[in-house]
Amino acid sequence: MTYGVVSGVERRLTHVEDWARRSADQQGLPAGGFIDHWIEGVVRPEEYTNLARLGVSVLVLFSYAGYVLRRQ
Predict the structure, then answer these.
(1) What is the CA 6 to chain-centroid distance, rounded?
(2) 38 by DSSP, 3-state: which?
(3) What is the pTM assigned to this prediction?
């Protein structure tokens, strides 16, 4: 599950982009939404999705651990 799905950010971005596309007389955003349309398979290949999620998770855990250690 991505940050955007958890926080609701993805949903707002999807609505804004879809509104802007329709206002410009273009086809609306595909059903997959903003992230699926612009990130999946565009910025990185789809077969690396789980690896990217793991990398972000590890980065967040190390950042949090560093924060906790510095606070002590």
Answers:
(1) 10
(2) helix
(3) 0.48
